[in-house]
Amino acid sequence: MIQNSNLKRSWTTRRDEKNERMQKADPHLEGKYVATDHITEVLETLIQPKDRVVLEGNNQKQASFLSTALASVNSDIVKELHMIMSSISRPEHLDIFEKGIANRIDFAFAGPQSLRVAQMIDDGQMEMGNIHTYLELYGRLFIDLIPSIALVAADKADEAGNLYTGANTEETPTIIEATAFRQGIVIVQVNEQVEELPRVDIPASWVDVIVVAKDPYQLEALFTRNPRHISEIQILMAMITIRGVYEKHQVQSLNHGIGFNTAAIELLLPTYGESLGLRGKICQHWAVNPHPTLIPAIESGWIDSIHCFGGERGMEEYISARSDVFFLGRDGTLRSNRTLSQMAGQYAVDLFIGSTLQMDYEGNSSTVTKGRLAGFGGAPNMGHDPKGRRHSTPAWLDMMKPEETLVRGKKLVVQMMETHQQGNNPVFVERLDAIDVAKEANLDIPPVMIYGEDVTHLVTEEGVAYLYKTNSIAERKEAIAAVAGVTPAGQEQSLKQKERLRSQGIVAYPEDLGIRRSDAKRSLLAAQSVEDLVTWSDDLYDPPQQFRSYWS
Amino acid sequence: MIQNSNLKRSWTTRRDEKNERMQKADPHLEGKYVATDHITEVLETLIQPKDRVVLEGNNQKQASFLSTALASVNSDIVKELHMIMSSISRPEHLDIFEKGIANRIDFAFAGPQSLRVAQMIDDGQMEMGNIHTYLELYGRLFIDLIPSIALVAADKADEAGNLYTGANTEETPTIIEATAFRQGIVIVQVNEQVEELPRVDIPASWVDVIVVAKDPYQLEALFTRNPRHISEIQILMAMITIRGVYEKHQVQSLNHGIGFNTAAIELLLPTYGESLGLRGKICQHWAVNPHPTLIPAIESGWIDSIHCFGGERGMEEYISARSDVFFLGRDGTLRSNRTLSQMAGQYAVDLFIGSTLQMDYEGNSSTVTKGRLAGFGGAPNMGHDPKGRRHSTPAWLDMMKPEETLVRGKKLVVQMMETHQQGNNPVFVERLDAIDVAKEANLDIPPVMIYGEDVTHLVTEEGVAYLYKTNSIAERKEAIAAVAGVTPAGQEQSLKQKERLRSQGIVAYPEDLGIRRSDAKRSLLAAQSVEDLVTWSDDLYDPPQQFRSYWS
After folding, report:
1. In chain A, which residues have their Cβ closer than 8 Å to the Cβ of B11?
2. Keyword set for this entry (chains A, B) (predicted)?
3. Testing the interface with A: which of B144, B306, B533, B540 to mutate, by most A Cβ within 10 A?
4. Most exposed: A323, A497, B10, B443, by fewest CB within 10 Å?
């Protein structure tokens, strides 16, 4: 049964389409380069209505010149685009929807714009595809969200069009690979054109159009936490975590998210951690951004290796001087890679630790709260037990339930937060706002960040709950309540229940871990200010201006 | 509390070590090139005892010249290496252990060498690290298995050292990225040096040493299945799968593993699938190798896109002529990428379908059987429900249990196999051999390929069991038994039990799906021979010699 040869068709429609568009743009191009002030016309020539457009922008690095240019195209010509973005971060990301240039979105994170996103969906200006984690969004770029256009950012390009992404390689190579190899059009903004690149991060043959941007791409110092703002409650929780989780399970590889809680842990390793004799035994291998608060631990010889999702402003020179610890190119600057670090953070580390705005009584948590469609970035990817994992480490094996025939370990997923949020609202709620948000925004499922069944440990200022030891949802609820303090969830529980859980080793309070609450002092922090971090770094760390204003 | 400045140390030990080794090798180098017959000496110069060495070799592409060279080094100089390999495939991969050149292994797959691996571990010649899936092994290259040395293969290199990997990019960029950016040494064998590359797959600044190999790297035609060998039982199972799984759940994106079962599905899409009116409704997006048996479905307009883990011998010209379907470089040849395709296969497709050698009564399966330490490659990664997934598709949502508050979907994981294996052994066993293998080989956990809780569908020649509908392990066991035929597991079950499961829609037999067993004929295959595939391909497919010998 052989094919009907009448059904002949063209198999090069994508390539022909690309060639046609590129030819129309040709008058504007010199080699691959387009003049800075011609970019809007070039976008109007290269982008067609209903195109799938990936606009680079994760939580740190933004293709800000290209997003501004896109927001200024004539919406009679360029319209109804399907936008794919890791992060909805900048005002013009939403302006393009208000102007009708785009009408559909698939994204991973919308922190700063989450209120406006929810409003625009409500108003029908934006059609919602899906909320993703980074890695599944990248995966779809090769399957059912293959881009027609990529708008991305790099530091430098040479005449041939090779790219140097510097410390902030991030997701650029993945977006470009998905676009370039399916005959999409890759448009890159660079901060400058140079004769010779420090190194090549992306080869010229993957790139179609380059524009030197008016200003360097936007780069947020998102992972910088000023030690001055770390509270003694956070220090107490950090001590509980180091003693009750990291030491107990011999956690050797890990990811820390953003936040003051984990910054406190980082700053206690060289002091409290050292006093416990843990250097070289825990926390040697990291998948993490280059947090300035890691400097004292690095300098004290705690850390063997750090693979980074992205860079961090002001850390460039320090990183270059610490080539034994970071991934650097031959030129001596950081090579980050968001895709590979997310992959490693999912599959190759013992522990993920994060925080949340709400947790229900069964341990499900979400940062999506009423009126805010925030998304989660990488948290669901790293904050779950990857069932495809087959290798073992001591910490992973410690989660084993030995009574099972087909024993296996589990990833350590730690939620760490104070029992009350700002405004004195309990973090523990009977029902997540996410359930109603899903209904209002017409989502297929409630946007849960981390599911209760995946949380192995819960740390609050009350103590630590070893949820992996519980044998039923009812027992998990009890264990959560036992560290929920004076919230309604906590107050329902009797002292007797708490004592039972404690005697079974399902919860531990500071005194059970040999921690005196009165020891949780700011003086225990290895650095108490940004200035201290600079001193630790041998003056190699160069904090952005906004963190210098605290010096006095 | 600022650092003790007496603790000054060097932060460039890795870089200094690399420079020192490279300087010793310098007399052998012209630019990055070493003469073909000097490679053994160069390896002896660059590799030190106890180094962590990644040797490229997945199930298709092998750095065979470098592995042969490594097996010939002086084991007084180069010894006790820690080898990291996706696949243990070639005899010399084990010779290096017999000779003491290496003594520790971390790997993902050992199909052809699985007997000898088990024996060598038993004899103490090989110390076992872990069995991995591809993606977690790649992840660890950035965390706690960072390589000192990479030995990899590419098609071509130019004078500067840029690499062209051609259709078989596979895992090369990932291995090189992990090594190059942590001051490891990257050694590449190429088939030829050329003046100008068709395209650049890997930039020169990531590469240290290049050698033109004596022979081209080994490349297996692993994913080629001769339609002549597809049996009518396999055709029946394929009909059951198309009707009872793909159509029922509107499966739009998927991965097919290797094997005759799935080859039968591919060859039935343009015939049986067409008669059901399913073209354009199912199976549009694939993460899969370029199977020759996909040609009729591609030619009939079934398939929108295919992203490939690797290439397939003989498919090169056909792929180049079908640029609307495959990922191709500007030069017109395939760009594969094992890491990105595994990521997409994990997170971005509706369905994974695979086969196994053993399944226990609860649905756990393994290809590790007595005396064979085979490993699993990518199956556990794609064959589980990725809990970090947050986007939805119709098929994924179909797995939802609507009674739950926090509803979510599930990945479709299908196991498809005849109830008896070769030698008439039942595939269903009370206890997996893997449990004893784990004890004998001193593994931390039994090497299970796919866990029963992740299997949503089981297809045999008896019918399909919808395991995702079962509400307890007991009910899952019943559903499995209902399609286990005349194996002991199947024979224990009463007709009444079967009827109950059938009436509840938990199992379906061919007659329930409107399939007549007598229709399962070879004439239903869109191609019945390799010759037919060539005809379908407009003579673009060029089968390797071993598949031509069947033509008569």
Report:
1. 321-325
2. Acyltransferase, Transferase
3. B144
4. B10
